[in-house]
Structure formats: structure tokens, C-alpha cells
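User: Here's a structure from my thesis project, written as C-alpha cells. My advisor, Dr. K., wants to see whether a designed sequence matches the one we expressed. Can you design one independently, without my sequence as a hint?
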């Protein structure tokens, strides 16, 4: 277990941290099952955070903040619903808050770190390090709602149905936003490589076969 995982899982047992003198709230305890699910979800949460921030340190901070927020507000999670979906929403909202406060473009992608994080099954790994850099630049130009969908579906492998449930939007909205995001990324990568969008699509689709 790496340092980021130890930081993020600190306190995921017993009662979550609360201020001095605060009485425990009903339904606020962290059961062994909830603790296990949080820990199991951490690698996926980290991939999602890295896809949004494209910076390892910021991704680890986002994971840690997400876990701390989830623990401190566990009474707001409804047992029987997907804990992972709830934590995705927390991470998304924290990231959006940071973007609004910073009002700056995202950091450059660390290519060496990206190769070790994105796409365990190889689905999201692109042809070259240069393409990864172009994708990072293209992601910065997408609206935040499209960046979130690319991170959820293309990087973390969520289905359209799951992404729609997390974002509380129709599946058709997910599909249209993701289609626009992919087209924008294809165009940016093609312009960066000096080739046509069709050539980029053919290369990426061919690399998955």
C-alpha cells in the first residue's frame, strides 16, 4: 500500500473524525463492509482523480479530500445505494470547486506517471507519449462536464448507465456530451499530429483490436 493509499484510508475504521465535543450521529459509523468497499474503490478513484487533474500530487490530494469528506458526511449516504457513485460525486464536486476558485488551466500531464495509472486493461492507453500530451492539452479545452465524462467512461470504464446515474442526467445526455468530447479530442490530436481526424480515429480504434 503506497503513501497515497495510507493517507486516503487513514480513519476508515470505527468512527470518522469529528470536532471536539460533537456527539456521534445515528448511522454515522463506518462498518467493516463500508471500510472494505472504500479501500477497494481507491485505485479507481485515483484513476478518476488523475484523469481530472493530470497531476499525481493533485490527484492524491483529491483522493484524500474525497475520503475525508465521505467519512465526515457518511450519514448523508443512503445504505443500499452505490457507495462508489456517491464518492464519484464527492470527488467531482471537490474538483469543480477547485477549478472555480483557481480559474486557471489544468497542469501539464506527467507522461511517466500517466502510463502507470491510466487504463489497467489498456483501453485508454494511446499510441504514444506525444499523443498523451496532446490528449492532456485537449482535455484542458473541454468544458468541465465533458472532462468528467471522459474521466468516468473513457478512463475509469464506467458504463453510460452508471455515469448517467452518478451525474443525475439522462443516458442520451451522457452519450451526446461524450460524443462531442471525443470529437473535440480527435480534432486536437489530429491538429497536433498534422493528420486528419479520420486517421486519428482509425489509429486509436485499430490499437484496441
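Assistant: Designed independently from the structure alone:
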Amino acid at each position: 500500500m503506497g503513501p497515497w493509499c495510507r493517507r486516503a484510508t487513514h480513519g476508515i475504521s470505527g468512527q470518522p473524525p469529528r470536532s471536539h465535543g460533537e456527539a456521534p450521529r445515528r448511522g454515522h459509523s463506518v462498518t467493516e463492509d463500508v471500510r472494505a468497499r472504500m479501500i477497494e474503490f481507491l485505485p479507481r478513484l485515483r484513476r478518476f482523480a488523475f484523469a481530472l487533474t493530470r497531476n499525481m500530487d493533485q490527484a492524491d490530494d483529491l483522493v484524500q479530500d474525497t475520503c475525508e469528506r465521505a467519512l465526515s458526511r457518511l450519514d448523508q449516504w443512503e445504505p443500499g445505494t452505490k457507495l462508489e457513485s456517491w464518492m464519484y460525486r464527492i470527488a467531482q464536486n471537490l474538483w469543480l470547486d477547485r477549478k472555480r476558485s483557481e480559474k486557471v488551466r489544468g497542469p501539464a500531464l506527467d507522461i511517466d506517471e500517466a502510463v502507470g495509472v491510466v487504463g489497467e486493461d489498456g483501453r485508454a492507453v494511446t499510441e504514444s507519449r506525444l499523443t498523451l500530451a496532446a490528449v492532456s492539452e485537449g482535455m484542458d479545452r473541454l468544458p468541465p462536464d465533458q472532462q468528467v465524462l471522459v474521466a468516468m467512461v473513457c478512463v475509469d470504464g464506467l458504463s453510460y448507465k452508471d455515469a448517467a446515474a452518478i451525474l443525475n442526467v439522462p443516458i442520451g445526455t451522457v452519450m451526446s456530451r461524450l460524443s462531442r468530447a471525443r470529437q473535440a479530442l480527435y480534432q486536437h490530436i489530429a491538429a497536433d499530429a498534422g493528420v486528419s481526424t479520420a486517421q486519428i480515429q482509425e489509429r486509436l480504434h485499430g490499437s484496441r483490436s
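When you compare it with your expressed construct, this may help: The chain is about 65% helix and 0% strand.
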